[in-house]
Specification:
Layout (H helix, E strand, L loop, with lengths): L21 H12 L15 H9 L3 H14 L5 H16 L3 H14 L4 H13 L3 H14 L4 H38 L8 E5 L6 E5 L2
Antiparallel strand pairs: 1-2
């Protein structure tokens, strides 16, 4: 049985007052009432999150697919209800450490509702679980565009920036190493190597000149 509940993450942006959430909750409830299958129930409040997470921890990957699959089959295309279902299933995937599936479901939720902050937050968790810090960083930056005061996004960007910079530097060094190996392979046919060439930087212009040396 699918429980449609916009689960709150510890890492998600802080909620406003309960009244501020009444409109989305009403919208989700209305959407759920339009479905005919008992597999989709009315959205629950965040007060019921704890029970849902406990149920998730005892679930298998197949349980997650079965629980939310039926709801996604009958939910109207492009409706907020589908985004909630995808985001909730992503939360279950995260609990099971199925990060690839979690990222995919978050992307589906975001495609429906690009301002759905919880889906963005959950996708950052999935990307970090996949050790894809570059995409996690981009998502946190997008979260700041949607909510400039988001404290989790601010802290996470500050935390990830040095990691991303270090990895980019490492990738650059690896690429230069491969290019050097390729250059030496070609020059080796002529009895030369890149060591026969020296790059001198002009301090005035910043440009380089290549000089040949024996």
């Amino acid at each position: 049985m699918v429980h449609i509940e916009d689960v709150t993450d510890a890492d998600a942006a802080p909620q406003k007052h309960e009244a501020a959430n009444s409109a989305p909750a009403a919208e989700e409830a209305k959407a759920s009432e339009q479905t005919t299958s008992p597999a989709v129930q009315s959205p629950e409040t965040d007060a019921n999150v704890e029970g849902s997470e406990q149920e998730t921890s005892e679930s298998s990957e197949q349980d997650v697919q079965d629980r939310y699959g039926d709801g996604l089959v009958i939910a109207p295309e492009g409706q907020k209800l589908r985004a909630v279902l995808y985001a909730n299933r992503a939360a279950c995937h995260l609990e099971l450490q199925s990060f690839k599936e979690a990222a995919k479901d978050c992307s589906s939720a975001i495609d429906i509702d690009g301002s759905y902050l919880k889906a963005w937050h959950r996708r950052t968790k999935a990307y970090e679980g996949l050790d894809d810090v570059d995409h996690a960083m981009r998502d946190f930056q997008k979260i700041l565009e949607l909510n400039p005061e988001d404290p989790i996004a601010k802290k996470s960007i500050a935390r990830l920036q040095p990691i991303v910079a270090e990895r980019q530097e490492k990738m650059k060094d690896e690429m230069l190493g491969k290019l050097k190996d390729l250059g030496n392979t070609v020059l080796g046919k002529f009895g030369m190597s890149l060591d026969n060439f020296k790059a001198d930087k002009d301090p005035n212009t910043g440009s380089y000149s290549i000089n040949f040396k024996q």
